[in-house]
Amino acid sequence: MSIVEEKLKNSAGSTVFSSSEVMLDLNNLKKIYPTPKGDYVVLEDLNLQIKKEEFVTIIGHSGCGKTTMLSMIAGLNPITGGNISVLGKPIKGPGPDRGVIFQAPSLMPWMTSLQNVMLGVNQVFPHATKAQRSDIAKYYLQKVGLEDAFHKRASDLSQGMQQRVGIARAFAIKPKVLLLDEPFGMLDSLTRGELQDILIEIWNKEKITAVMITHDVDEAIFLADRVVMMTSGPKAKIGDILDINFERPRTRKTVLEHDDYYKYRKHLIDFLEH
Ligand SMILES: Nc1ncnc2c1ncn2[C@@H]1O[C@H](COP(=O)(O)OP(=O)(O)OP(=O)(O)O)[C@@H](O)[C@H]1O
């Protein structure tokens, strides 16, 4: 049995990490949406532990409940049953310990890139001086390649540039966990690749935990330490977890040329097709 086959076999079982390793713990999570036709149980018995500094990608069929799960972690969607904790503390709503990047960055269109990033920074660091807050915002805008666009209005930026501001805004509040809901879904493949690289570079430097929903199997493999597969709803749960053992830093070329790449890909596609 190859190393990959052994890993695939092991990762099919549920993993339990020691509490000191765990950043995010989803415990018997349940979500019901009331509908005119009665209660719709989207998620049930969903258990997942995510380690500190881990990058986890989430895949599953459209409508299975990925966004529901992520928005519950963000504290934006009430939990019906079970609980979610960050560093052992149950979450009670949104908080600066969790940054969110959505598919559309929803910036204030009349504000500049800098002003948009400053909005979050001002809230999270109210005791810092204005110059310090501005330095934080500029640092992350520069990290996403927008050093020449600090004073451009959001409405004048391309979609890719707006998403760069969204990434800078999320990192600038220095969250413990970064939650990403298909952040590159609306971008062309070249911009998508560029932003994946930027995301990984900052994630690597900041050592935060990242949970990202994607529909793209190649993106899921390239970015992740583990790919989490959700079963189809109703009553969706975690169906399988695949460890991705490529060394970091990764380049697309080395990943694509690696023998294990196609085994990982086949595993994910087999899961999605059954
Ligand atoms: N507020 C709501 N009220 C009722 N049903 C809802 C609500 N929000 C989502 N749903 C339903 O819950 C299910 C899960 O939705 P969710 O958006 O979480 O899925 P998803 O896996 O993120 O989908 P996609 O991949 O298409 O974005 C879907 O059937 C959806 O129609």
Automatic annotation (TrEMBL):
SMART domains given in the database record: AAA
SUPFAM superfamilies per record: P-loop containing nucleoside triphosphate hydrolases
InterPro entries: AAA+_ATPase, ABC_transporter-like_ATP-bd, ABC_transporter-like_CS, ABC_transporter_ATP-bind, NO3_transporter_ATP-bd-like, P-loop_NTPase
Gene3D superfamilies named in the record: P-loop containing nucleotide triphosphate hydrolases (3.40.50.300)
Chief place where the protein resides: membrane
Annotated ranges, domain ABC transporter: 24-257
Topology relative to the membrane: Peripheral membrane protein
CDD domains found in the cross-reference section: ABC_NrtD_SsuB_transporters
Alphabetized GO MF terms: ATP binding; ATP hydrolysis activity; nitrate transmembrane transporter activity
Keywords attached to this entry: ATP-binding, Cell membrane, Membrane, Nucleotide-binding, Transport
Location in the cell: Cell membrane
Gene Ontology CC terms, in alphabetical order: plasma membrane
Keyword Membrane: yes
Protein name: ATP-binding cassette domain-containing protein
Species annotation: Winogradskyella endarachnes
